[in-house]
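Friendly challenge for the regulars: who can give me the structure tokens for this chain first? No prize, just bragging rights.
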Amino acid sequence: MIKYKVTLTKQEREELLSMTRGGKHSSKKVIHALILLNCDEGKFSDKVKNEDITRVLKIGARTIDRVKKKFVEQGFEAALENSPTTRVYERKTDGDTEAHLIALSCSKPPKEFSRWSLRLLADKMVEMKYVEDISYETVRRVLKKTK
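First reply, four minutes later:
Bragging rights claimed.
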């Protein structure tokens, strides 16, 4: 595993200290600032062990490693900012499936029930082979659309 060494300048340390002492900053930004301050191996501070940081800040060791890596590879500002997720979620439903679901929800419910539940709709969609599998939460999201 690669060890990332954080070395802050005096100006960067002062900026991080002022950020942790007050002002309006997101909690994640303050925690990242505290991580960088405690991991600093420069001449202006004394390094604290990662185990001590995790215990005091109540965060995982991987978080510390990620912040240090981001600081070394992308710089001071990038280590403090939240980056948007790059994960892409595959849609379970398309327009055709949504149309079948809406039509089904507008139809009469089964004899034993007074109305459609989300779970009933999900089960019926699988039973009618419109989809291979679908959760009631996906059904809820499709029916909740207000655009």
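The chain has a mean pLDDT of 88. The two ends are 48 Å apart (CA to CA). Your move, everyone else.
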